[in-house]
Every structure is written in structure tokens, then in C-alpha cells.
Design goal:
- The structure is a single chain.
- With about 150 residues, this protein is an all-alpha fold.
- It has one domain (about 1-145): TspO/MBR protein (Ferritin, Up-down Bundle), CATH 1.20.1260.100.
- It is about 80% helix and about 0% strand.
- It has six helices and no strands.
- The chain has helices spanning about 1-20, 25, 40-60, 65-90, 90-115, 120-145.
- The longest helix has 27 residues, at about 120-145.
- The protein is elongated.
Amino acid sequence: MLFAIFLIACLAAAATGMVFKPGDWYEGLAKPAFTPPKWVFPVAWSVIYLLLAWAAARLAVLPRNGIVMALWAAQIALNTLWTPVFFGAHRMGFAMAVMAVLWLVVAALVTLAFRLDAVAAVMLLPYLAWLCVAAALNWRIWQDNPGAGGV
């Protein structure tokens, strides 16, 4: 049951990608050579969201989990925020700020999760790795497309 509840939160975050699609604006932007093919994004996020929900379900039943669960809640909120900021509002600088805070929150989540449940923490590592790629993409697209989106 806990897994299903956390999966609902992840699906809500994922839904922003269906509402705020990359579209013509994004297609017209200069992108770095390391930009993954389009098909990689839904595959990566599907795996990440499943692992996020599973890790959260494991962590939620443990004692002394308050800060870890608060960090989980913060990361899913920030995750949900990034897509409409970048793809909806075209605010690449603001999206970069959201991404930076998201990365810090997830890094803290992983670090503290290791103290409670190493398996759950390992499940979060692909997310942190993907956020490194996403942050690099956000930064380069923002820098390589001056005037294409507000700060």
C-alpha cells in the first residue's frame, strides 16, 4: 500500500511532462552533443520513479525516518516544479536554480538513507546520477541559448 501511495506522488510529478511537453520551443534550442536521444527520457524517468516509490516505501516504515521522509517530500515537489518552469515558462535560469536545490536535496536524501537502509539508498543513486545529466543539460542549454528563455 505504501508503495502505491508514493507511486501516485511520482505519477503526479511525471504528469507535468505530459502537460508541459518540450515542443517547438525546445526543438529550436541549441543542445550539447551529450544530449541523450528522445527515447531515453521516458525510459529513464519510468525507472527512476519506480525506484523512488520503492525506496520511499522501504524508508517510510523505519524508525527515525522523519528527516529522510521530509527530504523525499521536498525532492518530489522540486521535481514536479522543474518541468513547468523549464518547458512551460521557458525560465531556464530559474529552472537551473530549482535543479541545483533538487540535486542538493536528493544528495542529502541519499546520504541519510544510507544510515537507515542501504538498499533504499542504492535505489536512489540512479536518480542522483540522472540529475547530474539533467543539470548539465539545463546549464548548457541555458548558456548556449541566450535570449531564448527568461532567467
